[in-house]
Amino acid sequence: MDLAYRMSIGMGGIGTAGDIVARLQMTKRMKLDAAKEFVAKKLGVDQFTLHDTLQMRDLRDELELGSVTALPGKAKGIEAKARIADLFDIKINSVKRLKKKLSLDF
Amino acid sequence: MTEFTMRTGTGKPLYMSKEQIRSDLEDGANWAATKAKIPELSANEIDRILDILVRPGRQIGVEQGKGIVLTTDGGTTRYTGICRYSAMPVSREQAVIIGERFIGFDTFEIGHADYSFRPVKTIAMDEATVIENTELNSVIPVFYGAMPNLGIYFQSQGGKWPSPTDFMNEGKIDEARAVQESAAEDMTNDIVYVAKIFAETGLDGLDIDTTAAAGDADFYGTLKAIEIIKKETNLALEVGMAGEKVFGLHADLKYDGERLAGMWPHQQGLMVEKAGGDLFGAVINTDTGKSCPWNLARSITFVKEVMKTVSIPVHPNMGMGVGGIPMCEVIPMDVVTRSGVAMVELTNCDGV
What we know:
The complex is a heterodimer.
Chain A: H1 2-8, H2 18-28, H3 32-43, H4 47-50, H5 53-63, H6 77-88, H7 93-102
Chain B: E1 4-7, E2 13-16, H1 18-36, H2 43-53, H3 92-103, E3 108-116, H4 117-122, H5 124-137, E4 142-147, H6 164-169, H7 173-199, E5 205-211, H8 216-232, E6 236-241, E7 254-255, E8 258-259, H9 265-275, E9 279-281, H10 292-309, H11 333-347
Parallel strand pairs in B: 3-4, 4-5, 5-6, 6-9
Antiparallel strand pairs in B: 1-2, 7-8
Helix pairs in contact in B: 1-2, 1-10, 2-11, 3-5, 7-8, 9-10, 10-11
């Protein structure tokens, strides 16, 4: 069932920008269309590109936002989340915790 | 006469003509509209669902660029050592990574096999370490899911409080109400206790799942927990319901001046929004005695009204036995994808 939903109606997670749209829904209560528009504008892409795994993979790698193909040297896990928090002005609890633990103010 | 393969409410193949499908769609939609006093689906909307259901191919999808956000309830439980699912020898940390990088989920959820806040309370610190490990390696938002499950606070299910139904059988309505209120207070405290520990881990959100399973006191206790969690933590809250109607086992509990018993999905969602919830998971249970088209049209009618009434993002539940999906453990992808596409295209929901 999980795969069927992903294939038929899902945005695609870190394969596209589904995780970022989800974060805007969760933290800013944004409706789907508004969240997609916000992310597309920030990334400078259209709606098709936002859902396109080929183009979004390159863009996410370039911006180091985390990707389905874990290229060596690129941001992963919480490193990618820190970059997402910064680029999209989203509060991410695990990133806040990391900064607190590192006693960093950035 | 051309026949199309639909499904019964239990998932078995059901061969129906277009006229039979249309008739079931109209009946299902009318059921919801009549019971909840909400608008029916138009003839055009019935036609659109019909077109989706008879589309050829074993699976179908939404148009390019029209994808929605996927949240899960159960999440990692479906990938790990739990015999009601796959029981794979995989850790929950690994399951999140599989969901993120292999399947392409937009969010994922960690949960415990005993999927209620009360049992999780005793192992909250152990669960917190799983969340901490996961948050270091994952990119997608991670929820922790559990049920409020007021039922397990009563002695009949191993809890502390006498069962309200025993009081009801003796005609002691005041006592039945009082014991539900006391149990709901305990339940609220347990949910908040767990939430506060998890908020320290870096967790993104809590999925409060199957809310109001034990009726209006279950719903009331959950709404009170939502209020406190939103004031005292940074957790996002997804609140999924147990069914399309809140049972009135107490029948006199109100929230924001509104009686909770008998609330339909659009009214439930408004309460969740007022309490501070961030995502609302509308639930419409599948009637196993009816066809999937009947159940799907009924679900879409309810969710359309939720989308009109509720301002926060809405993710209708579409898993086993809810949202027009049949009540079976291994759900055929023909019905999953058709129901999913119909729900997205007809309601413009924010996720599933």
